[in-house]
Specification:
There is one protein chain. The chain has helices spanning 30-39, 52-62, 92-101, 131-139, 164-175, 192-197, 211-214, 224-238; strands spanning 11-14, 21-22, 25-26, 43-47, 68-70, 75-78, 83-87, 122-125, 147-150, 155-158, 182-186, 200-203, 217-218. The protein is an alpha/beta fold. It has two domains: 6-88 and 162-238, HAD superfamily/HAD-like (Rossmann fold), CATH 3.40.50.1000; 92-158, Hypothetical Protein Ta0175, Chain: A, domain 2, CATH 3.90.1070. Strand 11, helix 6 (192-197) and strand 12 form a beta-alpha-beta unit.
């Protein structure tokens, strides 16, 4: 894998689920590698489909100094740089759409995933296997302006124009960082907008259509092992 020139970048933005975390938690080497990235002068930020209350403890456990983008771009918190929590959309329309979908698709639970109790800008459904049915129903409905995004962990109903790229762009603008000086690392379809915006993109999986094609590089290993592979190679290129 041809690596980006470390001197051209000042931040890395990581997806969380499937990239930093899997069902078994952190890879044993992850925390020390992430901290070495920060020690090398590159700020580490997180951009996730999780809510802020879900993703902020992960930021704290990694002891990184970047920002947190939650809800696929809907929520931005950059406490390290002194900025308040910002909600970039209103999730009421997505919640309405979930309730309507329950009248159209047998067995669909409009309450969705448990973390919806903290969700402010979107709504997430558990029925990952029904993605096509949900997508097609929304497209033919009065909620057709909403975007339907599968992540492998949930199906997100989001406001148009709201994605990881818009959330990360907002956070970068607050800090005065050029997106061209940012490396994005992810594994799923909701990472593609972030890949396309940032200066360099690393894909660690090929499960979702279009992810590898949107990235500048694909790791040999998959998932969190791919992230470890990339971090080791990147840090070795600095030394």
């Amino acid at each position: 894998m041809a690596l980006p020139d470390p001197t051209q970048f000042e931040m890395m933005v990581f997806d969380v689920d499937g990239t930093l975390l899997d069902a078994e938690g952190y890879h044993p080497d992850l925390v020390s590698l992430i901290r070495r990235v920060e020690e090398a002068g590159i700020v580490v930020s997180l951009a996730s489909g999780r809510t802020l209350p879900n993703v902020t403890p992960i930021q704290q456990s990694l002891a990184v100094s970047g920002f947190v983008v939650g809800e696929n771009g809907g929520m931005v918190w950059d406490t390290h740089a002194g900025f308040p929590i910002r909600a970039l959309a209103d999730g009421a329309r997505a919640r309405e759409a979930a309730n309507w979908l329950a009248t159209q698709i047998d067995g669909l639970d409009p309450a969705g995933i448990e973390s919806n109790r903290w969700r402010e800008t979107e709504w997430c459904l558990k029925e990952v296997g029904d993605f096509e049915a949900i997508r097609d129903a929304i497209a033919a409905s009065q909620y057709s302006e909403l975007t339907v995004v599968p992540t492998g962990f949930a199906i997100h109903l989001t406001t148009p124009g709201l994605d990881k790229a818009s959330g990360v762009a907002f956070a970068l603008e607050q800090r005065g960082i050029d997106p061209a000086r940012v490396i994005a690392v992810g594994d799923a379809a909701n990472d593609i907008p972030m890949f396309e915006m940032c200066g360099h993109a690393i894909a660690v999986n090929t499960t979702h259509e279009g992810v590898a094609e949107a990235a500048d590089h694909l790791t040999d290993a998959r998932g969190t092992a791919g992230t470890i592979e990339f971090l080791n190679q990147f840090l070795n290129s600095i030394n």
